[in-house]
Amino acid sequence: MNSLEDFLKWLSLHKEETIDPERPIIDPHHHFWPGDMHYLLEDLWQDTESGHNVKKTVFIECSQEYLKVGDKDFAPVGETIFVKNICDLAKKEKHRTQIEGIVGHVNLMIGAEKTVSVLRSHLEVGGALFKGIRHAGGWDHHPELSNSHHNPPKNLYLNETFLASLNELSNLNLSFEAWQYHHQVNQVKKIAELLPKLKIVLNHFSGPIGIGPYANKKDEIFEIWKTDIRELAKHENVYAKLGGMAMPINGYEFHKQVSPATSDQLVQEQKHYYHYLISNFGPERCMFESNFPVDKQSISYNVVWNAFKKMAKSYTSEDKDLMFYKTAESFYKL
Question: Does the model's pTM come out above 0.85?
């Protein structure tokens, strides 16, 4: 699409009536972009006020507004400053959705001692809003596929320096967002085994790839993923986010359609992933997430939360409360 205006016009081609509009929601995974994607506070509010009762959100790092001077290892603190300012701005309108958590970034390969220094800088500027970090480990050996935005080396999550630095998060009562690809689930399991006191949350179902060499292997990937997820879920320090699979890399090609994905389409294509994750982790360790504006490439905010509510239809009211609100509230201490 040629412009943001064209894209938003495309996104508006499909609208749905909001399901269960009074149900309280915490969206534990979204980003802010001041650049081309342009997703800032008013854009978030436009989405959270599109029908569902979104009370609170958690911002997840996306390498924005890094500090441009000083020690480069402290550059990610700039993102926390940037988001804290947005949080403060939101508080001027308390009746609207509030950003009550910030997950930043530290390059954990700088070593444990310096990691602590950078974490303390995040805490100094973010205060109680600062909840933890994400250091993406998504790596694939196929040259036509991109690695995660932190450009990790192979087996980053098994590196001794990385693990020693990661251990400092639990010492500061901070959490870790694990973002990698479907064939790396066992690396997250290894982290959970070695650092049982660390609170970990799996992002986006561990990123099942559905493009390039994986384009015609959806069933095969799902079966292998199931085995790995079952083992990972045995570690009670690991939680899971339910969402983030409407990205182009997942291979569903919603972004290429004449009109964006419907809630029924998302449910039909992906429900097996959702129900399997919930059955293994339990609602008490699962939280629905929008992953906006990244998933906005394929589906609107109102429609994606309709899809989640359709996924959750067969669960008890208590289980729904956990997955839409209470698990995120507890995990992030909101």
Answer: yes
